[in-house]
Design goal:
Length: 232
């Protein structure tokens, strides 16, 4: 071992000895790792929390001028993750360790203040805007007034639940029991009859419709809020 390498090793050993008595990471090391992970993924520092799950970190506080991060978990930056952290001083690696963290996301979202029944149009009076953790959500949370326009619930929603795109849909332009105009078009031939929708329907969907005159049930494609068309 040459003299410069021996001195670098000795310097690292002395610093590490005086970091903490039990070898647990100092606040500055933890903060540098947390900020480094946030910068690595260009995350929003105001709405992202990086919680350290590894207590003992063998990187000496104050001994490095830069940290390098390598992701060990093959996932998007969310939930539990592992990283290899390398500490450098003047371009020379002085320490290396592996850490586990939990990356959590928070956002101001709509939360229910009362139960919402199935197929109930979303009423802002039953909602409140609240900062919540959204890490485990699989669907996008609703965050603006525009998200609430013309939507109803797909199923019953409990009180104190985050409202997401998976819980709502646009109110169908045609509802079961509604009167509709039935169109049949075949080249120049066009026939119109009155009918009653037997199912809810979005534009382009096939629904059952009863012809009010013949009382027969037929399959039709929803065109708009008043019209359905018999498929050829």
């Amino acid at each position: 071992m040459n003299a410069p390498s021996r001195w670098n090793w000795l310097k690292w050993l002395i610093i590490l000895t005086f970091v903490t008595a039990d070898g647990f990471a100092g606040d500055e090391v933890v903060k540098d790792i947390q900020n480094g992970i946030i910068r690595m993924y260009n995350l929003d520092p105001l709405n992202t929390e990086v919680e350290m799950r590894t207590r003992e970190i063998q990187i000496p506080e104050g001994a490095y001028d830069s940290l390098d991060f390598k992701q060990l978990t093959r996932t998007e930056p969310r939930g539990l993750m592992a990283f290899e952290i390398s500490a450098y001083q003047n371009g020379e690696k002085i320490a290396e360790d592996q850490v586990r963290v939990r990356i959590a996301y928070h956002e101001i979202v709509y939360v229910t203040t009362d139960r919402i029944g199935r197929r109930e149009q979303i009423n802002p009076e039953k909602l409140t805007l609240k900062r919540m953790e959204i890490t485990s959500l699989t669907d996008k949370p609703l965050t603006s007034d525009d998200d609430l326009t013309g939507v109803w619930s797909l199923k019953s929603i409990k009180k104190d639940q985050i409202l997401t795109t998976g819980l709502v849909e646009s109110v169908p332009p045609i509802l079961s029991g509604q009167g509709v105009s039935i169109q049949y078009i075949n080249g120049p031939l066009e026939i119109t009859a009155r009918g009653t929708a037997l199912e809810d329907g979005q534009p382009g969907e096939m629904i059952r419709v009863r012809n009010d005159e013949s009382r027969k049930t037929i399959l039709c494609t929803v065109i708009d809020s008043k019209t359905v068309q018999i498929s050829n």
